[in-house]
Amino acid sequence: MMVESLGPRASACRSSTVAVLSVLLLAGCVQSAEEADANGNSNRKVEEGVSMRELTPEEEAVIVHKGTERPFSGEYYDHHEAGAYVCRRCGTPLYESDDKFDSGCGWPSFDDELPGAVKRLPDADGRRTEILCATCGAHLGHVFEGERMTDNDVRHCVNSISLEFVPAEEGVEDAAREGGVESGVEGADDGAGRARDERGDATGRAYFAGGCFWGVEHLLQEVDGVSEVRSGYMGGQTEEPTYHDVTSGRTGHAETVEVVYDPARVTFKELARLFFEIHDPTQIDGQGPDRGSQYRSAVFYVDDPQKLAAEELIGILKEKGYDVATEVTAAGPFWEAEDYHQDYYERSGGSPYCHTRQKRF
User: Quick check: 307 and 192 in contact, CB under 8 A?
Assistant: First the structure.
């Protein structure tokens, strides 16, 4: 990256071979609405289904007009906290802290990006390769190869001003596994998928995998009687997997949502019916443009009533001519995903790009 201005940035919502985050550009219709903060001040606008933060003149100079901040001056150059770096303009996750290294160049350096998050374009001079957020096109910096600085032999040289940092939540896995979730909900179950919450009330828990967890989480959160939906990973053999691990396809996990609900207001069967209508249960190892076993369709049941309900619904769909590929298997450990994956569409202001409801029952 040169110290000069060159003139006029779903996942998820992400497999190792598909640029998943970039297809968020397909989400929804073209909009020009503005969002207001708690004080009524507008600081974001929605374009092409992507919510984008308004930029300061300094941010715009780099992110829009492809300028470069001074070396050793950026907020994240000498930054080593655990977490993730997201696009400052649209909030799309771009890099994990595990992939950051000290290159001595004066700008934050990464030797890997989150799958599909970063787009590469040749510079006009043909000498360098520009990197941009694949969701909103924000200028990030440049990428270099062949320098032999790390085993990956690649260096993403990124402007700090193009990034925002999201710290990793300490103890988040412990909280997610509270009440027996770590042991596959064994011991916490109260029959019919119920567990006891902190108040001692009966609470239902259900686990669904249907492609990118961003969309499944978003649509199930809208159900009356659902109190919480969390994105995470289930069905694999690796303990405490990270998003980077799961997207490699080697851990065996599926992107899964944990649904906490009130059985007196909504039943597991009603949730499962909706689940089968907000994703394509006939697609094998994928959902829409997202390809890979981590995007497979699955119902992870916590007890026999849930198993029987899921199998009954699949039987109905098959009678209707659907070649259902959904797995029905016992729930195992649920590993909560990184904080930046939670409530993704609520935070970004976008819409699910491959999850829409289609009546099937």
Answer: no
Query: Pick from 344, 131, 137, 330: which is nearest to 230 by CA?
Result: 344
| Confidence bin at 270 (pLDDT 50/70/90) | very high
CATH of the domain at 284: 3.30.1060.10
CB count, 10 Å around CB of 27? 20
Torsion over CA of 337, 14, 137 and 108, rounded to 10 degrees?
A: 60
For 56-65, the pLDDT digits (tens) are 999 999 999 9
Q: Is 133 a known active-site residue?
A: no
Q: How confident is the model at residue 43 (pLDDT cuts 50, 70, 90)?
A: low
For residue 244, report the phi and psi dihedrals to the nearest 5 degrees.
-60, -40
Quote the domain boundaries for residue 79. 21-167
Residue 296 lies in a domain: yes
pTM tops 0.85, yes or no: no
Q: Which of 87, 90, 157, 354 is catalytic?
A: 157
pLDDT digits (tens, 9 = 90+) for 314-325: 999 999 999 999
The predicted pLDDT at position 53 comes to: 86
> What would the pLDDT profile of 204-226 be if each residue is shown by its tens digit?
999 999 999 999 999 999 999 99
Examine the fold and report which residue of 131, 152, 167 is the final residue of a domain before the chain moves on: 167
Whether 1 is covered by a domain: the verdict is: no
Has residue 305 been placed in a domain? yes
Which domain-ending residue is among 126, 141, 167? 167
Under DSSP, the state recorded for 347 is H
- Residues 199 and 341 both lie in one domain: yes
228 within some domain: yes
- Per-residue burial over 207-226, b if 16 or more Cβ lie within 10 Å, else e, is bbbbbbbbbbbbbbbebeeb
pLDDT at residue number 171: 31
Question: Would you call 102 exposed, middle or buried from its count of C-beta atoms within 10 A (0-12, 13-18, 19+)?
Answer: exposed
Domain total in the chain = 2
**Catalytic status, residue 136:** no
What are the Cα distances from residue 268, in Å, to 26, 252, 261, 275? 32, 25, 9, 10
